[in-house]
Amino acid sequence: MYGKLKEDVVYEKGENIEQWTVVFDDEKTNEKAIIKVRFSQYVPELIEFVVELNSIPIDDVKGKDVTVNWKMFNGFDA
């Protein structure tokens, strides 16, 4: 489910790029996801979402679908 927030959201600002990092981690199921949201003041119409998942278990020989759903309330103001 990748739904257990591990820690606070981390904000980083470099010379050209700003980034928010969110980590979801469930130690019981070994499900982990890292989501990075990147944007730049130089290209304001561009927002990059990077999603990293640990391996998807396939021991049960069942097909898996991975989806990422975003909800933005009141817009996104970088």
User: Which residues form runs of ≥5 with pLDDT under 50?
Assistant: none
The number of helical segments is 0
Q: What is the percentage of strand-forming residues?
A: 35-45%
**Could you give the order of the helices and strands?**
EEEE
Mean pLDDT: 81
Task: Report the radius of gyration as a whole number of Å.
Answer: 15 Å
| Main beta sheet | 4 strands, antiparallel
What structural category characterises the helix and strand content? mainly beta
- Quaternary assembly: single chain
Envelope shape: elongated
The count of DSSP E runs of length 2 or more, i.e. the number of strands, is 4
Q: What is the strand arrangement across the widest sheet?
A: 1-2-3-4
How much helix, percentage-wise, in residues? Answer: under 10%
Q: Could you give the distance between the termini?
A: 28 Å
Can I get a quick summary?
The chain has 78 residues and is mainly beta.
Could you explain the architecture of this structure?
This protein has 78 residues and is an all-beta fold. The chain has a domain of 44 residues. Helices cover 0% and strands 44% of the residues. It is built from no helices and 4 strands. Strands 1-2-3-4 form a 4-stranded antiparallel sheet, with no helix packed on it. A hairpin with a 4-residue loop joins β2 and β3. The radius of gyration is 15 Å and the shape is elongated. The two termini are 28 Å apart.
